[in-house]
């Protein structure tokens, strides 16, 4: 091997190492889809880490359980659990609650919460609360009426008309929530989640 070839190979190896370490040090991140139906890219550990960074006072064991449930329930129904999880974070103030819905209701998305007379739906367990949330997103995201893997527990599922009116987080603004910035707020949280 000539000196020039050896030098060229050395330079190429150094550039490759530099490129790899640059991606790692710059926090190279894989974009998360804003589509409500489809495959998520974050796992339980990543969702938990993201959540705890936003609310370090939260019960980490509960956050881990919820993250696992969102991944499992989302996968079962073909709903992007990344989007559903950040929606739970937004709706509950990262499990701080404080509005109409209280922690023991296991209502992680404000289902049916309108005013003091209509405080929202209640579910017996965390799993059922997450399942109802995922099912409600299914109604907004797809036109597949009653094509659910699990038994229907979302009592408000049938009221979502037209079916599939919110294929992405952006269409949830003015439909799921009256807030016209709702989709943008979810988008900001998804951008933060991409870093984990």
Which SSEs are present, and which pair or pack?
Layout: H1 3-25, H2 44-54, H3 60-77, H4 81-92, H5 126-141, H6 182-193
Helix pairs in contact: 2-3, 3-4, 3-5, 4-6
Features:
single chain; mainly alpha; 6 helices
Structure description:
This protein is mostly helical. The protein is 47% helix and 0% strand. The chain contains 6 helices and no strands. It has helices at 3-25, 44-54, 60-77, 81-92, 126-141, 182-193. Helix 4 (81-92) packs across helix 6 (182-193).
Average pLDDT level: 88
What structural category arises from helix and sheet content?
Answer: mainly alpha
Helix content percent band: 40-55%
Q: How much strand?
A: under 5%
For the biggest sheet, the summary is:
none
**Which runs of at least 5 residues are low in confidence (pLDDT < 50)?**
5-26
Number of strands: 0
| Outline | globular
Supply Rg: 21 Å
Task: Give the terminus-to-terminus CA distance.
Answer: 44 Å
Structure at a glance:
This protein is an all-alpha fold.
């Amino acid at each position: 091997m000539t000196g020039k070839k050896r030098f060229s190979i050395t330079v190429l190896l150094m550039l490759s190492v530099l490129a790899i370490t640059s991606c790692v040090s710059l926090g190279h991140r894989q974009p998360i889809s804003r589509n409500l139906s489809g495959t998520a890219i974050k796992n339980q550990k990543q969702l938990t880490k993201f959540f705890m960074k936003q609310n370090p006072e939260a019960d980490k064991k509960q956050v881990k359980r919820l993250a696992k449930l969102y991944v499992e329930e989302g996968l079962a129904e073909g709903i992007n659990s990344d989007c559903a999880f950040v929606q739970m974070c937004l709706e509950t103030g990262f499990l701080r609650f404080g509005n109409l819905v209280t922690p023991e209701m296991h209502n992680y998305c404000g289902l049916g919460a309108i005013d003091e007379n209509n405080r929202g739906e209640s579910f017996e367990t965390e799993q059922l609360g997450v399942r109802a949330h995922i099912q409600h997103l299914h109604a907004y995201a797809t036109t597949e009426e009653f094509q659910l893997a699990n038994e229907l527990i979302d009592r408000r599922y049938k009221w979502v008309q037209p079916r599939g009116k919110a294929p992405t987080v952006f269409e949830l603004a003015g439909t799921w929530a009256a807030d016209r910035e709702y989709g943008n707020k979810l988008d900001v949280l998804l951008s933060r989640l991409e870093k984990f």
